[in-house]
Amino acid sequence: MQIALLNKKINEAIVDAKIVFVINKDLNHASIADKETLELLGFKGESEETLFVPSSKTIYVGCDSLDADEIRLAASKALECIKKTNLKSLAIGTYSNDCPGVNIKALVEGFILGSYTFDTYKSKKEPSKLEKIIICLDDYSRVDVSLETATKALRSATAVAEATNFAKEIVNATPQDMTPMALADVAQTLTSIPNVYCKVMDENFLKAQGMNAFLAVNRASVHPPRLIHLTYKPKEVKKRFVYVGKGLTYDSGGLSLKPSEHMVTMKADKSGAAAVMAILKGAATLELPYEIHAIIGATENMIGGDAYKPDDVLVAKNGKTIEVRNTDAEGRLVLADCLCYAQELKPDLLVDMATLTGACVVALGEYTTGIMGHNSELKHSMRKASDKSGELSGVLPFNKYLRKLLKSSVADMSNISSSRYGGAITAGLFLDNFIEEENKDKWLHLDIAGPAYLEKAWGYNQFGATGAGVRMNLYWMIEENKK
Ligand code: BES
Ligand code: ZN
Ligand code: ZN
Hints:
By secondary structure, the protein is of the alpha/beta class. It contains 15 helices and 19 strands. The two termini are about 35 Å apart.
């Protein structure tokens, strides 16, 4: 599906049908030619409501306001409405708000995110017939959008949305297909982008580096672990950003086995890995002036005679000892070692992304990413970036009393809290043990356990993977680059 810009009125575009948004239920707007038909058919213009009027070849879509995320939602619903039709080309106006280009971005993101379908495992594929969407710049605008601004917006939004869909595709792949080695192969494909490099390390490297917490999680798996290190290094570098992703290609819980109903969807425990790869891909495509590293700890968490056990004590890369009390709290063990490795790169920003705790889903609900860290300004800027990107996020506060709950009688710390409450934060505080003093204020922990994978679609997110965390971080970098 191609998206093009046209410096003409919507009625001059030669297409199979046009899309008209009904903003704030205003059926009297000049852009709405079928008012009587719409009223006759009971179309009110509610958010997410769509109607195709064949006589005028118009797709009407309800849209609550000109806010970017409403525009994304309406754009995606327009495509959903014509999914089964044979329409090949569509045209739409620009719906500018006060910020030129912003809603062109939102339109493009809505179309690309909304058009994603996952059919790898379907024997009968039903590809969309839609080939082209034309965005007409000379329409409804309260603000003039220059072709230059619009072209930039189109390019930027395409990079962000396609990176998000790239993450979805990785996460949706089954655990038998997307093993740690297969994940490393996907990472290698990103080296086709200029200035992107990829190193893949095996278990011998992990042993040499003393990454025993990571190795312990891998032990019962028939698939060897991989430490994947992607780098994007452009000519001009303003800062160095290091991302660390949890890449559990499957989480059975290990010997602290998950109940079967909780095990389903655990192919999505590699969502942090997919997100950091996608962020690097997006940033490289946008040619942002930052050196970016994506570090992924890829392994399964399985059961077997060789499995690591509750009662084991592990020595992490930084020498700290961890009492294992629950093998299902495995993500933090992998991340602990990867965070140590990541800090050797002397980052200006260190972000880890993980489907880390069910407790985060309980705390914030299934749509929202948990943001944790020590630096209020940094947490706040990520919150703002996520709002702009259309992702939902909330800050979860650390405190010293929750930290005490990780105390162990036999080792430096336990891998689980002694309380059943505050589990998302205690997991974040566990990771904090592996953040060096000089990096405390540079670090953010993003728990994407809720929004990363859906068993029920919402907004413009389909069933399955959503690419959670990708857009908020790319928006964060785009904002940072304006400074
Ligand atoms: N991968 C899970 C967390 C998770 C839960 C992700 C639901 C997505 C949806 C993680 O490894 C895990 O099992 N965490 C445990 C921690 C507990 C043992 C302290 C959990 O959340 O129950
Ligand atoms: Zn687990
Ligand atoms: Zn897990």
